[in-house]
Amino acid sequence: MIVTPTPEIGMKNARQIENEAERVLWKSFQEGDDDAFAKLYQQYIQVIYNYGRKFSDDQSLIEDCIHSLFVDLWNNRETISLPISVRFYLYASIKRRLHKEMAKKKVTSVCDYSILEAVIKDSSASAEDQMIHKQQATKQQKTIMQSLSALSENQRRAILLKYYKDLSFQEIAKVMGMSTENIYKLVSRGVAMLKKNLQYQALYN
């Protein structure tokens, strides 16, 4: 009796064959095979780029992240583990890299401070609210930027991802590669430091 494969079985087998081919190519790349690395790059660069467009419209940023990703892959090839799926490994890697770079841009070039101001004000004492309200808009922006620069890099990233990107603590933990508890501590301590710095500057500037 001859059993005719169903379309579902055929698709499953095709994915298994594709995954196995990816893993063989990955192993060759890890062993220092230049041709395998070039093939890996050519095979996935457009796929990764298209995936990156889901998170950013900045073409230059996506291209830079892809370039740095493959540079790091080559430099660290001997210590990188063999992924179950090369495609999804690259998806996750470019997503993390893009989120990291976008968070850095928020720290250095953010122009709209209204969200952060609201967060700080909502949890501040009334006296501090009154002092902040009296400041001019440009002075508020300068003061907040100065206060942000006084935080650690991780505190800045966590706060900006939380209040500008509106990510949950769990999502931020995945982006930053830390535990949810540590992210909560970074955000709460960072906001407390911002309030303290703003209050000090309002009093003495």
Distinctive features:
elongated; mainly alpha; Arc Repressor Mutant, subunit A; 205 residues; 2 domains; 10 helices
Distance between the termini: 89 Å
CATH superfamily of the largest domain: RNA polymerase sigma factor, region 2, helix turn helix motif
Query: Which fold name fills CATH's third level, the topology of the largest domain?
Result: Rna Polymerase Sigma Factor, Chain: A
Largest beta-sheet details = none
**CATH class type of the largest domain:** Mainly Alpha
H and E order: HHHHHHHHHH
Low-pLDDT segments: 1-7, 107-115
Question: What structural class do you assign from the helix and strand content?
Answer: mainly alpha
Q: Which of globular, elongated, flat, extended, rod-shaped describes the shape? A: elongated
Number of DSSP helical runs:
10
Rounded mean pLDDT score: 75
CATH second-level architecture of the largest domain: Orthogonal Bundle
Number of domains: 2
Strand content: under 5%
Give the number of DSSP strands: 0
As a whole number of angstroms, the C-alpha radius of gyration is 23 Å
The percent of residues in helical segments reads: over 70%
Summarize the structure.
This protein has 205 residues and is mainly alpha-helical. 78% of the residues lie in helices and 0% in strands. It is elongated.
